[in-house]
Amino acid sequence: MVKGTEVKRPYEVVVLMHPDATVEQQKALFTKNKETIKNYNGNVQMVETWGKRTLATPIGKLKKAVFFHSVFEANPQAIAELERTMRINDKVLRFAHTALDERTSMAKHIEAFKKGLAESAQREKEREAKAQLRRQAAQQARMERDEE
């Protein structure tokens, strides 16, 4: 157990791993991270796999990555150790730790995050439906024009 202050703060992290990382490599990273958090008097509340997604901007020559999101409580020194270990892991492309508001419970953070994801997914579905209608209207107009 690491000695130090007993202050636990809420954090979230998004980790982007190499798209060729095996499931074993992914599990090994999160097992190591969980051990580090426990060593700093913390606990992991949630780990979600978002799967392989397309990156907004390529990282090197990579256009895809495996995304993970985690929410946890830990001693602030844990973040430095987590970032150190992720920097030396070849399969970790990017990561971002964010300190969450201590006045809000972890359950509320998780609930708000999931609500935001659901709203974003709904907006994306609506945007795709509108685009589909525009494509159909354009195709209909072309067919009518070709008949004349």
* Secondary-structure element pattern, one letter each: EHEEHEH
Approximate strand percentage: 25-35%
Biggest β-sheet description: 4 strands, antiparallel
Broad structural category? alpha+beta
Through-space gap between termini:
80 Å
Extract low-pLDDT stretches. none
Radius of gyration: 21 Å
Average pLDDT number: 87
Assigned CATH superfamily of the largest domain: Ribosomal protein S6/Translation elongation factor EF1B
Estimated helix fraction: 40-55%
Which architecture of the largest domain would the CATH scheme give at its second level? 2-Layer Sandwich
Strand line-up of the largest beta sheet: 2-3-1-4
DSSP helix count?
3
What do you see in this structure?
The protein is elongated, with a radius of gyration of 21 Å. The protein has three helices and four strands; from the N terminus they run βαββαβα. The longest helix is centred in the last third of the chain and has 42 residues, at 106-147. The chain has helices at 23-39, 76-87, 106-147, and strands spanning 9-17, 43-59, 62-74, 92-99. Helices cover 48% and strands 32% of the residues. It is of the alpha+beta class and 148 residues long. Strands 2-3-1-4 form a four-stranded antiparallel sheet. The protein has two domains: 1-103, Alpha-Beta Plaits (2-Layer Sandwich), CATH 3.30.70; 106-148.
